[in-house]
Amino acid sequence: MLRRRFRAMGTEIELLLDALPSATAMHGLARAEREFARLERLLSRFDPGSELSLLNERGTMTAGPELLEVTALAVAARERTRGRFDPTVHDALVAAGYDRSFEHLPSDAGRPAVLAGPCGGGVRIDGAVSTIQLDPGVHLDLGGIGKGYAADRAAALLAVAGPALVDAGGDMALHGRPWQVGVETPGGTLTLELGSGGLATSGRDRRRWARAGREQHHLIDPVTGRPAESDILRVTVAAASAVDAEVHAKALFLAGAAGALREANALALPAVIVCADGRTLVSEVIG
Predict the structure, then answer these.
(1) What is the CATH number of the domain that holds 178?
(2) Using one digit for the tens of pLDDT, what is the confidence trace for 126-173?
(3) Within a domain: residue 98?
């Protein structure tokens, strides 16, 4: 098993390639790492020179193919999740104090919390001329879905050399053969066997910080514009791609434990739901 580790998109990335050392394998690992760096330069809201930051500043622009595609995926996800996944949570995240890369957040910003309004602002995409137009005052955050997109792209590059797994801070893209993946629960590690596709976790137990003495987290409820209140601590979902898994994980978290289990069963999604009270629920596909 060949491995490569590096940091990108605010998290630790690990590439696994089930292949013998060869020029093709090493080239694939290097290309996958470069792809993460390239997409981060395009999609990061924390880089003032990124294409996404320029769009947020200008409100409308001709976009490159990656920003156009990820924005279209995010808007389509908003529609199919009835607004629970929403790329227009940017200002709500900033209001909660998440205004810089997570590793650079102070332990307590010391400023009073700013109340953000509901999300759901207008985003218009014209694929014929490659333009994106945001309603006045609307700004995009593509952090989670961008990370899933990068993981999918990197896994596709690696798959040329053999079965591959890309782990982007616990969110994964898998290709080529069944992989055993451990999901932590209060009762121990639950092992899932997954084929090609993606895995993602959304939770309020990892990316937390304090603002003016109040705990905040990064999962915004688009209805209120505030960190979501949920009886779920974290939810892990497997889907056809890392992008799809990112979308489903956020949507299920906002649905609450009972709603998340119903939705996962209805969609035949493998899902592990860890509740705030210590219970672990699993979807029917897992059994």
Answers:
(1) 3.10.520.10
(2) 999 999 999 999 999 999 999 999 999 999 999 999 999 999 998 999
(3) yes
